[in-house]
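Hi P.,

Sorry for the delay on this. The queue was packed all week, but I finally got your sequence through. Input first:
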Amino acid sequence: QVQLVESGGGLVQAGGSLRLSCAASGRTFSNYAMGWFRQAPGKERSFVAAISYSGRTPHYADSVKDRFTISKDPAENTVYLQMNSLKPEDTAVYYCAADVVPSRYIQEWRNWGQGTQVTVSS
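Then the structure:
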């Protein structure tokens, strides 16, 4: 079991940037793939980005590709999501997840954080 705590959410104007952090504790961080998902009001939780346990081969949802960057810092036991050129449609609660495989599918992630709110104003 790994415990995850997100931070870094907030209110930002369209076109701005935010960096989300997810601090992990418990099992060995380096053994886990990490992912970010988001859930907007009235919508299902959806995939944003994921990265393998080695920190290589990140992949992204089409809607955030070229704007968001996921990275992993084993020294800090932290995964980041750098979000640039934010749009109002990026408004959501963002969740960090950890598991073996960096999947796009929610059901394949067993460890979740509590979420952090991101609001992008137009």
